[in-house]
Amino acid sequence: MKKTLLIVAFFSCMTTATAQKYVGGDISLLTKYEEAGVVYKDKDGNDVQPLTFFKEQGLNAMRVRLFVDPSFDNDKAVCQDLEYVKALGKRIKEAGHKFMLDFHYSDTWADPGKQWTPDAWKTLNDEALATKVYEYTKKCLEELKAAGAGPDFIQTGNEISFGMLWGVAGTTANHCYIDSPDANWNRFFSFLKKAGAACREECPDAKIIIHSERVPEKDVLIDYFDRIKTASIDYDIIGLSYYPAYHGDLATLEGALKALEDKNYGKDIMIVETGYSYAWALDGTTFDYTATYPYTEEGQRQFTADLITMLNKHESVKGLFWWWPEDNGNKGVTDKWWNAALYNHDTGKPYAAFYELKSFATSTNINQFTHEKETDSDWYSLNGLKHTRKPAEKGVYINNGKTIVIK
């Protein structure tokens, strides 16, 4: 009887530990890099196929942005129309990853300071605009499914803390701040409801994400999600952007996570964008973290490791996505240089931080129970605790992607 109870208890623990978590990146420019002849390599210098390699290294989900008509923008990185996303999304799914679709509902970058209405929609009144959001969302999802690229996660807007679809560039009347008129918020929520309705109809199994970047402003963040709750917005996951260069230290992020958890919204949380520089400050940096994490490959790796250690203490956090990890030498793909990429532009090899990412989900992706021989790589207990060497205590651990029993 004791043996039976131990087995039951063990597999109960395993069931808890296998609650799914997702780790990957926003790889929206991967197609353009490949078309430009960029070669991706592993740490030993061997050529690899990126999506297959990502999967082999423990990543399991990828994010792609979608613009309404990116031809209106001269930024080479703004190229992800529906046809582009269908093709890349299909490849992501075929490689065994989950697919996160990020609707920008704009012809250009949508972020806290830019939520401009697409050119083709700019003459619509608010009621017609809400209908257009529904129709556009539904059409995109229909076509993605037909192309074999049905999304598993759907962001209905990108960094929409202050609303979306404000109007033409320069419009200020429709912004949603704490002290904005209720009419502004109601207008915004009408769009979210229409977008969510289309998602539920076309992709009922997909999880809807509401995305905010207000990590440093807990009062604004909580006010925002309180309003969303009061408005009965239908969604599943709180998505956050967190860049130390703009949002502060890890304690700031953890404070935001605790504030959200204390409110008991009943939602999972994902860090849908993060990044830290391997060299030089990011453009517009407002917080210098270099005393703790220098702008070096090792500094980037240590930041990633510490971020994951902190996130793995929060059961509510189910996702971690690095932004633009695939940036791997310009070759005319963009006019920009992303100092927080995960690839060395000179060698084509991943930086050390790339190999840290898998530890976010290692303890939750147990696909087999085995007595495989251990290796020299890091060890993880079933609660996500990282060990730099083989543990001395008896128990079940994860080592090199295998479940190891230490007797």
What does it look like?
With 407 residues, the chain is α/β, with parallel strands linked by helices. 33% of the residues lie in helices and 15% in strands. The protein has eleven helices and twelve strands. An eight-stranded parallel β-barrel has the order 1-2-3-4-5-6-7-8. A four-stranded antiparallel sheet has the order 10-9-11-12, with no helix packed on it. The radius of gyration is 22 Å and the shape is globular. The protein starts with a helix and ends with a strand. The relative contact order is 0.13.
Topology (SSEs and partners):
Elements: H1 2-17, E1 22-26, H2 30-35, H3 50-56, E2 61-66, H4 82-94, E3 98-103, H5 126-146, E4 153-156, H6 182-202, E5 207-212, H7 218-230, E6 237-242, H8 244-247, H9 250-263, E7 268-274, H10 297-311, E8 317-323, H11 352-356, E9 379-381, E10 386-387, E11 395-399, E12 402-406
Helix pairs in contact: 5-6
What's the short story on this structure?
With 407 residues, this protein is of the alpha/beta class. It has eleven helices and twelve strands. The protein has helices spanning 2-17, 30-35, 50-56, 82-94, 126-146, 182-202, 218-230, 244-247, 250-263, 297-311, 352-356; strands spanning 22-26, 61-66, 98-103, 153-156, 207-212, 237-242, 268-274, 317-323, 379-381, 386-387, 395-399, 402-406.
